Amino acid sequence: MRRGTNSLEVKKLNRNRVFRYVNSLSETSMPDISAALDISGPTVLTIVKELKDAGVVAEVGELQSTGGRKAKAIAAVKDARCAIGVDITANHVGIAYTDLARKVLKHERIRKPFACEDVYFRELSEILRRFVEENRIPETKMEGVGISLPGIVDRQKNILTQSHILNIKDLSRERLADYIPYPCELLNDANAAAITEGVDFKDPESNMVYLSLSNSVGGAVIFADEMKSNDGIRSDYDGGAMYMGNNWRSGEFGHMVVHPEGKTCYCGKKGCLDAYCSALNLAQLENGDLKGFFQKLESGTGEYRRIWEEYMYDLAIVVDNLRMCFDCEVVLGGYVGNYMEPYIEQFRAIAAAKNIFGGSGAYVRVCRYREEASAFGAALYQIEKYISKI
Ligand SMILES: [Zn+2]
CA triplet 316, 327, 309: central angle to 5 degrees? Predict the structure, then answer.
């Protein structure tokens, strides 16, 4: 617990811990909550009443008795709040929604080339309206919309300050708010995707670097210690768990140089990882079809095997550098990460050979969430923000 925590904060922290505990299980009981979290029975009783009054916890029958009085079964009202995530890319819009259970309830991807014009934003608004309608998402329960974008996002001002991919200099939340009838937040796409990897953390053990290998290469840095600082529970990501840097530019791993004087990157510099390891490098061999590339690789085309090995070699340079910087787990995500499971042992061997401290390369793993990760993560961001205030 942080130093100087007063009794009101302790009460708030305990209420939050109780909700997260209940939310992590299908059902539980007050004696169980009390034992698991080491909070007194009367305090648990008070907190559960508050959570019931807030509509986020409910009694759902009785638990099987192990002798004595039957305990009331308590469960989180998973659909008490929901949120939508929208991922804007150069050519598509990804959309996903989730609720307090933090599972993807529905997702889809629509081809829609980006243009920073009213007509695009009106169409985006229409996509959102149709999605809400088709999935019967109750507007009264909507916490908000998280919007993921490929570029530098100033989280404090909620402005996209730079995006090579979308070819724009700035895009503010206010501009979008004219078209989106819910509270919205802007997030960097790789940061949003990284949030999905933390969703299974009940009590995060390890720090994580997330490397997003999509049509551009980006990443995120998550410090588990910051998540744990609230007495073992996750703080929301603005609380410091995600390292953003002094200028919101942390995690731009795509512009780390792997080949000095090498290929020119879209940023203008030579030899950036992005020029070698963006998904486009592989997809362009199959007319933009990344799946097609991996299918041909699987069927054993010699040329594709050579290209893939070079890809993994370049990637391993940065993965090893990240391991040197952060000494933590490195997660391979984004479009290419989705296809890397069959090759992860081979990749680990390449990465391990570079590591001066030895080891097996087990610190690298493939992402767990593979479909619309940025959209899902942007929705989770809104849900986490809500949960952290319970
Ligand atoms: Zn670059």
Answer: 10
Q: How far is the CA of 275 from the centre of ligand 1 (A)?
A: 7
**Model's pTM, two decimal places?**
0.90
Number of H-type helices and E-type strands within the chain: 14, 14
The pairing of strands 217-222 and 208-213 is antiparallel
What string of H, E and C letters represents the secondary structure of 49-99? HHHHHCCCEEEEEECCCCCCCCCEEEEECHHHCEEEEEEECCCEEEEEEEE
CA of 72 to the centre of ligand 1 (A): 58
Asked if the domains 7-76 and 80-197+373-389 are classified in one and the same CATH topology, the answer is: no
Distance (angstroms) between ligand 1 centre and the Cα of 135 equals: 40
- Nearest one of 179, 213, 205 to 319, comparing CA atoms: 213
Q: Read off the pLDDT band of 236 (50, 70, 90).
A: low
Gap from CA of 265 to ligand 1 centroid (Å): 5
Q: Measured in angstroms, how far is the CA atom of residue 139 from the centroid of ligand 1?
A: 41
Three-state DSSP at 122 gives: helix
CATH classification number, 208-366, choose in 3.40.50.150, 3.30.1130.10, 3.30.420.40, 3.30.420.240? 3.30.420.40
- The CATH class of the 7-76 domain is mainly alpha
Tens digit of pLDDT for each residue in 355-373? 988 888 999 999 988 889 9
The token pair that represents 14 in the structure block: 């305990």
